[in-house]
Design a protein that fits this description.
With 243 residues, the protein is an alpha/beta fold. The chain has helices at residues 55-65, 92-98, 105-117, 131-142, 182-195, 225-242, and strands at 21-25, 28-33, 41-46, 70-74, 123-129, 146-152, 169-174, 200-205. The chain has a single domain (21-242), classed as Rossmann fold (3-Layer(aba) Sandwich). It is 31% helix and 20% strand. Helix 1 links the parallel strand 3 and strand 4. The radius of gyration is 17 Å and the shape is globular. Pfam families: DLH.
Length: 243
């Protein structure tokens, strides 16, 4: 039995009663939560490998909507199966080939069009976790329509052009994340300093493993809670600064 490399226990989860609703946008299903008042500000949330139905990600969508944003989490896997806790890590590389986080441009464009035309959004930000963090990093290099981005523990590693961000981007990492080495974070910092022409920020949260920032309050360990809450506040503050 190979150990789960994420140290991210998705097994026991409290039930979550979602505040939003599901919509169909062209070929994509999406979960949307809106604040109780009109706003022309929106945030796209990109899920991790566990997909758009996972309670943790829906909790994040509702949380961001509570700060006054039309918030949407599209199914970037387009109806195909997300990674499941019963799947074997030996198959993960193959699964990733079929679910490439840098091949999200078409879906992002469909969602941006929906937010602008159907929801009246004028400023749109993006937040992504793990797989979604890699997708955010990619989109912040490619899509000028995204005003600001937050990439949580996702890094594009094998491309030399990953430092010319188009708009302000915040990278959040956990210190104990053994899917992302400290060297990779240091390299990202050095290269951004060299090439990046927009505002950016990198922050590493002490003692935190991969996936730490998504947990619902009742699923948090007391020792991690302050760091999780700080990461969330930092994420929201970054969005509020630009959107």
């Amino acid at each position: 039995q190979m150990a789960d490399p994420f140290l991210y226990n998705t097994g026991e989860r409290s039930q979550y009663g979602c505040l939003g609703h599901e919509v169909q946008i062209e070929h994509i299903k999406a979960y949307v939560c809106r604040p109780s008042f009109f706003t022309d500000k929106a945030v796209i949330v990109i899920h991790d490998i566990f997909g758009w139905l996972f309670p943790d990600i829906r909790y994040i969508v509702d949380l961001i909507a509570g700060h006054g944003y039309i918030t949407i989490c599209p199914d970037f896997f387009k109806g195909t199966d997300p990674w499941k806790t019963t799947d074997h890590w030996a198959d993960f590389a193959d699964w990733m080939k079929a679910h490439d986080p840098v091949k999200v441009d078409k879906e992002a464009d469909v969602v941006l069009k929906y937010l602008k035309e159907q929801c009246g959004a004028k400023k749109i930000g993006i937040v992504g976790f793990s797989w979604g963090g890699m997708a955010v990093h990619h989109l912040m290099l490619k899509n000028p329509q995204l005003t600001a981005g937050v990439s949580l523990y996702g890094i594009i590693r094998d491309s030399e052009e990953r430092y010319n961000l188009l708009n302000p981007t915040f990278f959040i990492f956990g210190e104990k994340d053994h899917t992302i080495s400290y060297d990779q974070i240091t390299l990202l910092e050095e290269k951004l300093k060299q090439y990046c022409k927009v505002e950016y920020k990198i922050k590493v949260y002490p003692g935190q493993v991969h996936g730490f920032a998504q947990l619902q309050p009742e699923d948090m360990k007391p020792e991690d809670k302050p760091y999780i809450e700080e990461a969330r506040k930092d994420m929201i503050d970054w969005i509020k600064m630009f959107i």
